[in-house]
Write a structure and sequence with these properties.
Bound molecules: 5'-deoxyadenosine, iron/sulfur cluster
Number of strands: 21
Structural class: alpha/beta
Shape: globular
Helix content: 25-40%
Strand order of the largest sheet: 2-1-3-4-5-6
CATH class of one domain: Alpha Beta
Number of helices: 15
Largest sheet: 6 strands, parallel
C-alpha cells in the first residue's frame, strides 16, 4: 500500500483520525479552562467524542459541531468509553476514506455493546452522499447529519436520545455558520482555521465535493474579521482562511451593496495586526488574480505560500477533468506568482491515472513538478466516485498497478524537488512563529516560516509558543529545515 509522508499530507487524514491531539496545558493556559474531560469513569455530565477525517474544512466543521453541542450540555472527551455520543466527521473524496470510516463504525458499535444507550452519529460528506442508506442498510448509526445541517444537531440528538433515528441532509444555499463561535478542539493556542466560504460550484469531473457540500456561498466578511480579531486577542498568531475555492470568495454587504472579493478580504484580515499571520487554502488556478498576488506582496504578514493544485500537467487530461484551464494557463499563473513574489513557495495536488491518461500525459505531470518547483504536493491515484461527471462519462480504464506505479514516480520526483527546494534555504534566515515542542525532542522548538516550511531548532533563552524568532537554516531534508536561533 502506498503511503505518503504524514507531515506532508493533509489528506493522510483518510486513514488517520484527528484524535483531537490537543496539548492540554497550552490550551488550559490560553483558554482558561479545561476543554476535555478524559476520566475513566463518567462524572454524570453528557460527553461527546468526535473523530474527523478529510480536509481542513472538516476539522473546522467539527469545531462548529462542538460549539453547537456545547449549547445543549454536551462537552468533549477524548475517551470514547465514557462518551454518550460518538461522532465521526467523514470524507468521501476517495473510496479508501469511506472504507476507513466503515471500519471505525464497527469499532464504535463494539463500544456501544459495553455501554448501551451510546449514540453514534455520522457527519459530513459521507452522510450527505449516502443519506438514509446508513440508517436503512447499515443500521450502524443513530444520527446522519450533512455538512449544512449542524444547527439541527440539538433536535436530532434529542430524537436519538428518545431512541429514534435522526437524519438531516438538506443542503443549503445560505448556511455559513457565520454567527457560531467554533470551540477550538484541536488547538495549540497559536494557529487556527477560519472558514470563509462553503460549497463548490466548479464541477471538476473527478470530484464528489459539489454533491456533498452543495453550492458555493461566502460568509459575511465582518464576521470573518471579528473571528480573526477575537483569535488574536486570545493569543493566536496565525489564521488560515479556508474554503474549497477561496479565490472565488465574493460577499455583498447588504447595507452598502459593495462587493468584497478575496483580495479585499485578505487585506481586511491582514490589517487586524502585523503580528497575526494570514494563510489561505485552497486556490483554484482559474480564479487566482494578480490583485490577490499584489495584496500578498504588499503585506508582510500574509504568508508567501500558495496551494495551487494542478491535478494534471497535461492539457487534454485537464479538459477531461473539467478544470477549465490548460497547461499554459497554469504556467502563466505560476510565473506571475514568482514574478510578483520571488520568495513565494507553491504546493500542489496531483492525481495519477485519470481516465485515458497515457504515459506521455503522465510525463507532463512529472515535468510540471520540476518546472513549477513545488515545495511539496499531495499526491493521489484516481479513485472513481459514484455520481461524479467522470463516473458517468468515462471508463475508469487505467489498471490499478499502473496508477500506483505512476503515483510512485510522482512521489519520488516530488521528494527530490522538495529536497532541492529545502536545500536552497540552507544559509538563509527566516522569521519563524514558534508553535511548540518539536515532535522528537523537548529541547527543540518547531515552527513555520512564511513559506509554510517546518523549521526545527534548539531552544535557547526564555521563549514561548506564539513568539516570532529569527532562525538561520543550516541543514534540511525533504520535509523539514533545521536551524539555529539568530539574535
Ligand atoms: N480521486 C483521487 N483524488 C481525488 N481528489 C479529489 N477527487 C479525487 C478522486 N476522485 C484529490 C484532488 C483534490 C484533493 C482534495 O483530492 O487532488 O485537489
Ligand atoms: Fe473530503 Fe472533500 Fe468533503 Fe473535504 S470536502 S471532507 S476533502 S469530500
Amino acid at each position: 500500500m502506498l503511503k505518503f509522508a504524514p507531515q506532508k499530507c493533509k489528506y493522510m487524514y483518510d486513514n488517520n483520525p484527528t484524535l483531537l491531539s490537543l496539548d492540554k496545558e497550552i490550551n488550559e493556559a490560553r483558554q482558561g479552562e479545561a476543554l476535555y474531560f478524559d476520566g475513566i469513569i463518567s462524572d454524570g455530565q453528557k460527553r461527546f467524542y468526535i473523530e474527523s477525517y478529510g480536509c481542513q474544512m472538516n476539522f473546522s466543521d467539527s469545531e462548529i459541531v462542538a460549539s453547537i453541542l456545547g449549547e445543549v450540555g454536551y462537552s468533549p472527551t477524548r475517551n470514547m468509553e465514557i462518551a454518550d455520543l460518538i461522532l465521526v466527521n467523514t470524507c468521501s473524496i476517495r473510496e479508501k476514506a469511506e472504507d476507513t470510516v466503515r471500519k471505525r463504525l464497527e469499532v464504535f458499535n463494539q463500544q456501544k455493546k459495553s455501554k448501551p444507550g451510546t449514540m453514534i452519529g455520522v457527519l459530513g460528506c459521507m452522510a450527505e452522499r449516502l443519506k438514509s442508506k446508513f440508517l436503512e442498510e447499515e443500521k450502524l448509526v443513530d444520527l446522519v447529519v450533512g455538512p449544512d445541517a449542524y444547527r439541527d444537531l440539538p433536535n436530532l440528538v434529542a430524537t436519538a436520545e428518545d431512541g429514534d433515528k435522526g437524519i438531516n441532509v438538506f443542503l443549503s444555499r445560505e448556511e455559513t455558520y457565520s454567527d457560531i463561535s467554533p470551540l477550538r478542539l484541536d488547538s495549540n493556542g497559536i494557529t487556527a482555521f477560519i472558514s470563509i466560504m462553503r460549497g463548490c460550484d466548479n464541477m471538476c469531473s473527478f470530484c464528489v465535493v459539489p454533491f456533498t457540500r452543495g453550492r458555493e456561498r461566502s460568509r459575511d466578511a465582518f464576521s470573518i474579521l471579528s473571528e480573526a480579531e477575537d483569535l488574536f486577542q486570545k493569543g493566536y498568531r496565525e489564521v488560515t482562511l479556508l474554503g474549497q475555492n477561496v479565490d472565488s470568495y465574493k460577499w455583498e454587504n447588504p447595507e452598502t451593496k459593495k462587493i468584497v472579493n478575496f483580495a479585499e478580504l485578505l487585506e481586511m484580515v491582514a490589517l487586524v495586526s502585523q503580528d497575526l499571520r494570514i494563510r489561505f487554502s485552497t486556490s483554484h488556478p482559474k480564479d487566482i488574480t494578480d490583485q490577490v498576488l499584489y495584496t500578498m506582496a504588499k503585506h508582510e504578514n500574509i504568508c508567501k505560500y500558495i496551494h495551487l493544485p494542478v491535478q494534471s500537467g497535461n492539457s487534454r487530461v485537464l479538459e477531461l477533468m473539467n478544470r477549465t484551464y490548460d497547461r499554459e494557463w497554469y504556467m502563466d499563473r505560476v510565473s506571475a506568482i514568482y514574478r510578483i513574489m520571488p520568495d513565494c513557495a507553491i504546493s500542489s495536488d496531483i492525481i495519477t491515472g485519470f481516465c485515458t491518461e497515457t504515459e506521455e500525459e503522465h510525463q507532463d505531470s512529472l515535468s510540471m513538478i520540476d518546472w513549477a518547483n513545488y515545495s511539496m504536493s499531495y499526491m493521489f491515484f484516481y479513485s472513481e466516485r459514484p455520481g461524479t461527471l467522470a463516473a458517468k462519462k468515462f471508463a475508469d480504464d487505467i489498471p490499478e498497478n499502473i496508477k500506483k506505479r505512476r503515483l510512485n514516480e510522482i512521489i519520488a520526483l516530488q521528494n527530490q524537488v522538495s529536497l532541492r527546494h529545502n536545500l536552497a534555504d540552507v544559509g538563509k534566515t527566516f522569521k519563524v512563529l514558534i508553535e511548540g515542542n518539536s515532535k522528537k525532542s523537548e529541547n527543540d522548538w518547531k515552527g513555520r516560516n512564511s513559506q509554510n516550511k517546518m523549521i526545527v531548532f534548539p531552544k535557547k533563552g526564555d521563549l514561548k509558543p506564539g513568539e516570532y524568532v529569527f532562525v538561520k537554516v543550516h541543514n534540511a531534508n525533504s520535509a523539514t529545515l533545521l536551524g539555529e536561533l539568530v539574535n
